[in-house]
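Pilot study result, target chain (259 residues):
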Amino acid sequence: MLFKPWLDVKPSRHELHDDSSSDEDRDINIDFEYTDSEERSTSKKPLAGQIHHDVVDEITFSLDTNVQVEYLFLVAPALEVVMSSFGDCAKLGIIEVNQEASRSIKIPIMYNETARVHWICLPQIPLELCYHLTKTIFDRLTPKFTILLCPLFVDSLENVYILRTNAVNTCIPSDLILEPPRFITGVFASALSYAEVKQLPAICFIVGAEGVMDHEYIEDEAVKNTIRLLLEVVPNSSSWKINMQRQSKYHGRATGMYV
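Predicted structure:
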């Protein structure tokens, strides 16, 4: 898997003391212990693999009805244009992510009845919330198949690359597999790694983009190539009714270059 862990562990703090050192060396102690003020300022930040007890209160999940999710799309804002090709969607619920005491992000859960596709547009969120948001989504929706649409600056001939979990049996051409040193980060890396650990089928489409985070510009050709690969790679997707004209109109008015 080619993704970056959502949190990096700080090196352990220790006191240097070696019995094999000289008497002179033993008098020199290098102490990296926190001061009281440092400990208070850093104690709120969980290390990798740990979830601070306050994080659970940072995310609320509400659904209007009980749903059975066959296909779940987790989509970056710049690639929301792909979902427009499926047609009109209805809002089924809300995920609320509280970043600070006075600020929160409300993320709608959308559904297209014709294609039986659920999708969530995920902006970048604080790294310490990525795992818990991912776990909440998978636990509450229990999708049978997950598709991630993630923008990334890719300087190569291909404008779309793919990563998948081992639970996906679909054969993917080797030239489309994302190779090091490129990798994905943030909430999309968290979702893909969670699916891999839980042995869930998931495919991530990494689409070439330019610009700043959450305001990327994606060429129309890359969007069309993403839709084409969706129909080729995702199992049982032939029944999806994709309207490329609808996608082109949305892309024309919704995208732009941010500098």
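One observation from the pilot: The chain has a mean pLDDT of 77. A full batch analysis is planned for the follow-on phase.
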